[in-house]
Amino acid sequence: MHLSSEQRAKLSLLTRSNYGSTYEHALLRALTPFQRAVLLECARIPKGQTRTYSQVARAIGKPHAARAVGNALAKNPLAPIIPCHRVVRSDGKLGGYSAKGGADRKRKMLEREGVKL
Predict the structure, then answer these.
(1) What is the pTM of this model?
(2) Among 2, 4, 72, 17, which residue's Cα sits nearest to residue 42?
(3) N or C: which end of the chain has fewer CB within 10 A?
(4) DSSP letters spanning 45-87
């Protein structure tokens, strides 16, 4: 799989065992291993594409944890840097977005990335 430099930076941030002392690293240290796994998988979603909560759950080896994936994304301390807006419901609806602007902002970000809604 080819990763952009932006994706590599996000993955590096999430996978370091010693996050250092920056504000972002402190935020990530506070997450559970499950939440970090969800965000790591989310960081792999290419711009202009989406995944469902169920697809993310399966990708991290927790196929029955779609709701927990949504809860983990709601705690994303680095939205939209970690692009949780690219995760949508399996019925085609957007789902939630906990960052400022809510679902309307999620829709606009996806449209700017070329996602057909």
Answers:
(1) 0.79
(2) 72
(3) N
(4) SPTT--EEHHHHHHHTT-TT-HHHHHHHHHT-TTTTTS-GGGE
* Residue 94 in domain: yes
Tokens linked to 32: 């559970």
Q: For residue range 41-69, what is the model confidence (pLDDT) as tens digits? A: 998 999 999 999 999 999 999 999 999 99
Residues labelled as active-site residues: 84
Cα(14)–Cα(44) distance, rounded to whole angstroms?
11
Q: Which two tokens stand for residue 56?
A: 């993310």
- Which residues form the domain of 66? 5-112
Sequence letter at residue 113: E
CATH of the domain at 13: 1.10.10.10
User: Is 17 a member of any domain?
Assistant: yes
